[in-house]
Amino acid sequence: MKKTKRFEELLKKFDNTKVHSLKEGVDTVKTLASAKFDETVEIALKLNVDPRYADQMVRGSVVLPAGTGKVVRVAVIAKDAKADEAKTAAADIVGDDDLIEQIQAGNINFDVLIATPNLMGLVGKVGRILGPKGLMPNPKTGTVTMDIKQAVENAKGGQVNFRVDKQGNIHAGIGKVSFTKEQLMDNLSTFIKAINKHKPASAKGRYVKNATLSLTMSPSVSLDTQEIIDLR
User: Fold this and answer.
1) Model's pTM, two decimal places?
2) Which of 89, 118, 156, 175 has the fewest CB atoms within 10 Å, i.e. is most exposed?
3) Does residue 2 fall inside a structural domain?
4) Do 152 and 184 have their domain in common?
5) From the UniProt record, which GO molecular function terms apply (predicted)?
């Protein structure tokens, strides 16, 4: 892939052959902002797991202390008192059969979908639509729950869901470049601790093979994997 002039200029701002500490990584990506919008700070991890085996799947969620910097639209599938709870918690869309019909019609105006366990059979009707979009509620990410209030607050307050792909990679946004260095460090540390907490018992060898930090439109900054592995 041909590198643009802007990309080449950004590469001159740091040593891309060096492995950086987490603090150095945050300090460096803060200097790489070049877009006309508030770029997302992204972490990419290559884990030493084989997700073809169920006992090596790494999946979960974590609420970042400084939030994600994004406005998240939350939909809730619930009835009666739980629907009222969702509305009180400021969910953007609340419904049951009517919401399922909207999804079937292709009207997906939300970023996160939460459902009560008793209505997952209803949600299953649109599983083929939601699944490929990463919107299917799941207990592991806290989006299938009876605690609707907490789930809505988490989703709007900075929850990040993560799931290892077929190659063992995890990508996630941990904030915006406009965040302070302290906010980004807090978010980065919290995210890494969550990944380490989800290390499969069956995973052998070095858990994190490599890691990078980048902006939406910047080169990647290599991170010290030992520091990451040691962070608990």
Assistant:
1) 0.87
2) 118
3) no
4) no
5) rRNA binding; structural constituent of ribosome; tRNA binding
